[in-house]
Amino acid sequence: xxxxxxxxxxxxxxxxxxxxxxxxxxxxxxxxxxxxxxxxxxxxxxxxxxxxxxxxxxxxxxxxxxxxxxxxxxxxxxxxxxxxxxxxxxxxxxxxxxxxxxxxxxxxxxxxxxxxxxxxxxxxxxxxxxxxxxxxxxxxxxxxxxxxxxxxxxxxxxxxxxxxxxxxxxxxxxxxxxxxxxxxxxxxxxxxxxxxxxxxxxxxxxxxxxxxxxxxxxxxxxxxxxxxxxxxxxxxxxxxxxxxxxxxxxxxxxxxxxxxxxxxxxxxxxxxxxxxxxxxxxxxxxxxxxxxxxxxxxxxxxxxxxxxxxxxxxxxxxxxxxxxxxxxxxxxxxxxxxxxxxxxxxxxxxxxxxx
Length: 355
Prior knowledge:
Layout: H1 2-17, E1 31-36, E2 39-44, H2 62-67, H3 79-92, H4 98-123, H5 126-149, H6 157-167, H7 174-181, E3 184-190, E4 195-197, E5 206-212, E6 215-219, E7 222-227, H8 235-238, E8 250-253, E9 257-263, H9 264-271, H10 275-300, E10 305-306, E11 321-322, H11 330-341
Antiparallel strand pairs: 1-2, 3-9, 4-8, 5-9, 6-7, 6-8, 10-11
Helix pairs in contact: 3-4, 4-5
């Protein structure tokens, strides 16, 4: 557009500069009037038979004017001017990546800085100094914001393991995961035989993920399955269960454990505007539910195992016992297989301390 505008201005200027000289001739049969002494005397003018030579000065064409506009070039500008344009060139080469935005802003900041120095110390152009100062401030602010957003986000060791194991494979960024962590209620420490949830007593108002240790889920004092690290305690309640309802199972720590607890309603409100995070949680929790259903289905296919009636009293009693020796493998063997799958110590069917 600038080139076309300059071309149009040049054409207009060239047309204005083109002039012609109009020839003047004398009429062959004209007469001249002389005035003297109050008398008018008319005399015939002599016939002029000479021709007047008409000359038109040659003007340069528009293209010659542009090609020969600078017959003598001025000296090359100061090194500040050259450095400014080098940085502007580098800013044009910035890639379309987050680091490319940093590259772009840094190059523009340096380019505006050198351009301002050139205008201030070499040419003494006040308007150029003001413009480049404004550009410098704007680009520096954008650079600072982008650099702050790109700073490395670190988590606690246990939280980092959860992120790497569950969320990073699904391409959840650290910033998105930090947003999820902002809905965290606390990290709950459970002692051996301590109840996390009591069936028909504890409300379903949280989402809990095991960080370390193992917990057993039971119903009517019958063990259903074991929850290992990086698995959720209440993933089935995430789907279609309100916070006013109660757990239908009991959850008890088999050893000292730590559980990451989210505020359920706050977490749902936080991710409701992000379809990607919603899909991630539905996938992770849905997979966790399927895993639990497979364990429960396998547990129900074997015979009797139960928790002692007084496990909440904290007495030194076995966590899992077998009712009859002739009941087949029983739930203890099943739980042993679950523990073996997680490379954990086996549960013994004979009375022993669970912790």
